[in-house]
Amino acid sequence: MKDYLGNPLPVERSIRFVTPSAKFVCIGEGALSANMSAKTIRMVAGHPILYQGQEMPCEALLSLKLEGVKEETGEPEPVYTLVTQQRTFADVQGLPVATWSLRDWTREHGADEGRLWTSQ
């Protein structure tokens, strides 16, 4: 795993949980630029990304009316999130996606709270 600058990114935890949200943003292949989103990425609405140097919730892309970016609704489903020592942006298929810092994750969600997680 690498951060958005291409540096190695040690992951403390990779966590799988069922999101309470049923709103998702789908970013299609090449929708943001030729170098971003090598594959379609489906994210929970509200998850922060870095786009053109600015942090924003992924659903802010919808207002830009970019071809290949759309909203989907459905049932809550399992999703994954990354926890790193410090909050940063991971390179996910060429898209900088925010991670949780270990401190913030533990403060917000406790040590486990019944979620599945793996140490890296």
Could you describe the 3D structure shown?
By secondary structure, the protein is mainly beta. It has one domain (11-119). Helices cover 7% and strands 42% of the residues. The longest helix has 8 residues, at 102-109. The radius of gyration is 14 Å and the shape is globular. It starts with 10 loop residues before the first strand and ends with a strand. The mean pLDDT is 87.
Short recap of the structure:
The chain is mainly beta and 120 residues long. It has one helix and eleven strands; from the N terminus they run ββββββββββαβ.
Feature tags:
7% helix; 1 helix; three-stranded antiparallel beta sheet; 120 residues; mainly beta; four-stranded mixed beta sheet; globular; single chain
Molecular shape: globular
Low-confidence stretches: none
- Number of E-state strands: 11
Q: Which bin fits the share of residues in helices?
A: under 10%
Residue share in β-strands: 35-45%
**Sheet with the most strands: spatial strand order:** 10-7-1-11
**Total number of distinct structural domains:** 1
What structural category do the secondary elements indicate? mainly beta
What's the helix and strand layout?
Elements: E1 11-18, E2 23-27, E3 41-44, E4 48-51, E5 54-57, E6 69-73, E7 78-84, E8 89-92, E9 95-98, E10 100-101, H1 102-109, E11 116-119
Parallel strand pairs: 7-10
Antiparallel strand pairs: 1-7, 1-11, 2-3, 2-6, 4-5, 8-9
